[in-house]
Amino acid sequence: MAVFRPFRAIRPTPALAASIAALPYDTMSSAEARVRVQGNPYSFLHIDKAEVDLPEGVDLYDGQVYATAAGNLQRLVAEHAFRQDAAPQFYLYRQTWRGRSQLGLVGCASIDDYKNNSIKKHELTHPEKETDRINHVTACNANTGPIFLMYRDSVGVAAVLEAWRAAHGSEVAFTAGGVLQEIWPIDDPALAQRLEQAFAAVPALYIADGHHRCASAARVGFAKRAAFPAYTGDEEFNFFLAVAFPEDQLTILDYNRVVRDLNGMTAEALLSRVSDLFSVELYAPAGQPYHPEAGHYFGMLLGGNWYRLRARRGSFDEGDPIARLDVEILQKNLLAPILGVQDPRRDHRIEFVGGIRGLEELERRCREDMQLAFAMFPTTTAELMDIADSGNIMPPKSTWFEPKLLSGLFVHDLG
Question: Contact, 49 vs 32, CB < 8 A?
Fold first, then answer.
């Protein structure tokens, strides 16, 4: 069972929501963030990437960065750019992009569910990144960025949420980055109770995006428990900010690869090696990029030509939820043995390109600084959940969820 409960959100006033909302802190560099905040004192990047208000070159993990973040949050609250709701409630957050909508429920998940694996993970986290967010959350005494969760909707939550949405006008609506962002407060205590009970029947929640934020939020909560041993379990620090979506509404894009060289081989020798474990054919029409139409198909851009690859049967274990992932097939059968990319996390010869940039970006990179590119079929939510259910970890750069949840629309005060 999963705990998911309402809370008293600190939210932007509707008139300022579009100015405050920002992409997550980890989707941009400090230099990009400095450009984005120009002329906008309300941008949430002043909180989530507070180094933008300090001299360039400041250590991103310096204590003054976290102190500045806390001060900026307090300033926006004092200026009434933010307000805190009087009573705990849930909120609907809908994003519409490219003709598809995903309708999430904004609430708070439990640090105990994270610890006991009722909230399931599929990625490794890095200690230094966890420490950064721990320091940030501790300084602000708040969860400033929502965790992107998903669930199998076996209890009909999505239909209940859609009925509420259809019967009420949105309080906030604006477009950012081509995505329509809409918010509805659910100010019905009876419905909130029904939703809590419904989530109690959901076997598990799955982290779609935000593993570092989630791990950090849980660690802050347990640290506060240690500092307040008389805690009851109902205090806000026992919970963290999240948005939960039914998995069938979510969109995972391809996460493509570009490689700097051919590992000392000629193009002909590479094609010969690849054909051992993949069927290889020149893609027609010539000059058009090939986007894989199904799992176990891959597009390969080499020497200005696109090739259509298909993993040969027997070249991977179809019964293993990790081995049958396309990203793992490509890594184990081509990138490592043929191109010598043994550790894609650290090898500087390989880079990763989110599908949001399109296959044209792969072509551009191969014209400029790379010799080889691979277009992937997107990982599915079912594959992700199967791996999380098995207790395993997905290979690096397996999923690219789009659209991203914006930060700044909801802040969870830890009390």
Answer: no
How far apart, in whole angstroms, are the C-alpha atoms of residue 105 and residue 102?
10
Strand, helix or coil for residue 214: helix
Q: Which residues contact 292 (CB under 8 A, 6 or more apart)?
A: 254, 298, 299, 326, 375, 376, 377
Q: Look at residues 274, 263, 220 and name the one whose alpha carbon lies nearest to residue 413.
A: 220
Domain boundaries, the chain: 4-251+402-413, 255-377
Contact 369, 353 (CB under 8 A): no
Q: Give the C-alpha separation, 215 to 1, whole Å.
A: 20
Structure tokens at 93: 């957050």
Give residue 124's pLDDT: 87
Local structure of 11: helix, strand or coil: strand
- The angle at the Cα of 24, spanning 259 to 31, to the nearest 5 degrees, equals 70
User: Among residues 1, 240, 251, 250, which one has the least CA distance to residue 150?
Assistant: 250
Residues 91, 106 contacting (CB under 8 angstroms): yes
CB 244 within 8 A of CB 104: yes
Q: Can you say whether the dihedral through the CA atoms of 334, 340, 342, 345 is positive or negative?
A: negative
pLDDT digits (tens, 9 = 90+) for 289-331: 999 999 999 999 999 999 999 999 999 999 999 999 999 999 9
294 within 8 A of 300, measured Cβ to Cβ = no
* Residue linked to tokens 């199967």: 386
Q: What angle do CA 174, 175, 180 make, to 5 degrees?
A: 90
The residue count of the chain comes to 415
On the question of a cis peptide bond just before residue 12, with omega within 30 degrees of 0, the verdict is no
Q: Which helix (H) or strand (E) holds 327?
A: helix 326-330
241: β partners: 108
Q: At 359, list the tokens.
A: 């296959």
